[in-house]
Amino acid sequence: MNRLFIVLLVALLALNVGCGSDNNRNSRNIDEDPTNNSNTSDDDPAGDEDSDGVVNGEDNCPSDANAEQADQDNDGSGDSCDEDVDGDDIANSQDNAPLAANHEQTDSDGDGEGDVSDNDIDGDEVTDSLDNCPRVANPDQADSDNSGAGDACEPSDDADADGVDEHLDNCPDQPNPEQLDLDSDHIGDVCDSDDDGDGIEDAQDNCPLQPNSEQADSNGDGLGDACGNDADKDGIEDERDNCPEIPNPLQDDTDSDGAGNFCDNDDDGDGVEDGFDNCQFARNPDQSDWDNNGVGDVCDGDLDGDGIVNEMDNCPLKPNPDQRDTDGNGIGDVCHGDIDSDGVADVGDNCPSTHNPEQGDEDGDGFGDACDRNIVTCEPGGLFVPIVQPQAIVSSNNNSTDCPLCTVTDEDKVVDNIPTNAAQMSTPLGNGNSTYVRVTDTDTIYSGTLRAGFIVENPQSPLGQLSLQSITISTLLNGQLAESAGGANLLQFGLQDGGQRRLLAIATELEFNEVQIGLGALDTLVNQLDVYQACIAPH
Q1: How many CB atoms lie within 10 A of CB 228?
Q2: Contacts of 467 (CB under 8 A, 6+ apart)
């Protein structure tokens, strides 16, 4: 039994030795195989270190597999091993947009993703392509005037785009350029639920524009007795109705010509009938329409028609929907050389950012009339706005006991809304003599930083220093002096097509509802001055 066990053990040992020899031979054969790449040097240009099918000598990333050989910035280093894939000199690990060159690393919403690759630049969770203020956060997308530009990025001082600054607007969220306020409660009629202030809301009031808290209606026709004669049944007596035969309870009259919009065939008074006017409620007699979209430039929120609202467009007069700005200077690439696209190179343009191919410069100061802050207008929707009837009344000290020979003639023309009409002031020789004209706005108390003054003209000669020294502009609140300045302290503005007329004004900060111009005496001749209109503007 023991002998048999020993014989079997010897046989097993012999078999194991044979197998080991075969294994050694196989190992040697593998090591000596000339096709085995493991013996090829990594530096061998014919080799393929990363096994991506591209030999080392041609591989732009020899140590990182990248069969596609992608190289976004074309610097010879493949994307899979390039530490700056977009070639903007910022390492991928530090780059807030590693696949889009952005040297400035602009990240408006601070979310860690650069603007060039962020589809929500302002971080308000509204995609830029759908955002009405893509660079100003406004998750509610409020757009009070439906202009296409959200309130958050529209000029903050006039959210409803009615031409009245928000701090002066008695209905800041609803367009009402006329600022009508029947009951003088400082809430404009278009947003006042009780226009006549009689305690009865308009919807239930049988005479909504005439105070009648008792709601008396003797004949039971549904129209309150207080309304009197009212042919169109709009709650306004015929003698006060600017459209007596067409119902128009709001009495809208954009051009303040006395004819309500409902019966006026030229609402904005620009000489173009409404049916042909490309801006029905904004004066534009030239009907300019830069992008030929049928909407006049003065009321077009996107002048070049590229889908970017003017306030956000880096080249507002040349279509550039991609807003490309290679040098990041805020001016779109398509604008370089002639930003305003008026055919005049920027280096010689007297208004390089304002379209003015004619290059008009009435005062010869080197600044074109189109952009010269010293050339202004005083009209509805202009830089200055006139104070005119029906909310304006005028007074003077004509033939007063203080100055019996001081005269003011045609004073009502200062508020009659005809810009070419003027009152005439005259002050005789002698120290202490002076006369004045005062315009009171019965609807509005102005506040904030403004400018207030009058359009004037010396009927004998252009206004000189001698004449200016005798002129004073003042503001008052219910007859009490608020602020005043005269002579060299007056602000002077030229007027477009105004000839020798000038707008003299003062900067104001205190509340007022009256503007006054005073004319003092001269030593050598009778002092005379023509006064056209009182005007108010933001500073």
Answers
A1: 14
A2: 458, 527, 529
Residue 120 half-sphere exposure toward CB, CA atoms < 13 A:
11
- Strands (E) across 346-501 are located at 375-376, 385-386, 392-396, 407-409, 423-427, 434-441, 450-457, 471-477, 480-486, 491-495
Count Cβ atoms within 10 A of the Cβ of residue 345 and give its class: 0-12 exposed, 13-18 middle, 19 or more buried.
Answer: exposed
Going by pLDDT thresholds of 50, 70 and 90, the confidence category of residue 167 is low
3-state secondary structure of 39: helix
pTM for this predicted structure: 0.38
Residue 489 amino acid letter: N
Pairing, β 434-441 against β 480-486: unpaired
Which residues, including other chains, have CB under 8 Å from residue 410's CB and lie 6 or more apart?
421, 422, 423, 424
Mean pLDDT of 72-89: 83
Distance CA 393, CA 438 (A): 8
Among 200-209, 364-373, 397-406, 427-436, which is the least confidently predicted range?
364-373
Q: Following DSSP, what letter does each residue of 274-301 receive, concatenated?
A: GGG-SSTTS--TT---TT-SSS-GGG-S
The rounded distance, in Å, linking the Cα atoms of 79 and 82 is 5
Residue 99 has pLDDT above 60, yes or no: yes
How many Å is the Cα radius of gyration of the chain?
Answer: 40
How is residue 342 written in tokens? 């008026």
Question: What would the two tokens of residue 530 be?
Answer: 């023509």
CB 353 within 8 A of CB 346: no
Cβ contacts of 464 within 8 Å, gap of 6 or more:
458
Q: In what order do the strands lie in the sheet with 434-441?
A: 392-396, 434-441, 514-520, 471-477, 480-486
**Which residue's structure tokens are 């023509």?**
530
What are the structure tokens assigned to 477, written together?
Answer: 């609140």
CATH class (in words) of the domain with range 385-538: mainly beta
- 51: exposed, middle or buried (C-beta count within 10 Å: 0-12, 13-18, 19+)? exposed
Look up residue 285 and give its two tokens.
Answer: 């007699």
Residue 429 contacts residue 517 (beta carbons within 8 Å): no
pLDDT band at 58 (very low <50, low <70, confident <90, very high): confident
Domain positions in the chain are 385-538
Task: Find residue 493's DSSP bridge partners.
Answer: 503
User: CA separation (Å) from 289 to 275, 300, 301, 302, 496?
Assistant: 16, 8, 12, 11, 21
Would you state the pLDDT for residue 6? 46
- Chain Cα centroid distance, residue 437: 36
Instruction: Give the β-pairing of 527-538 and 423-427.
Output: antiparallel
pLDDT at residue 382 above 90?
no
Q: Could you tell me whether strands 491-495 and 375-376 are parallel, antiparallel, or unpaired per DSSP bridges?
A: parallel
N-terminal to C-terminal alpha carbon distance within the chain: 124
Alpha carbons 194 and 211: distance in angstroms, whole number: 10
Longest Cα–Cα distance of the chain, Å, equals 160
d(CA 99, CA 70): 12
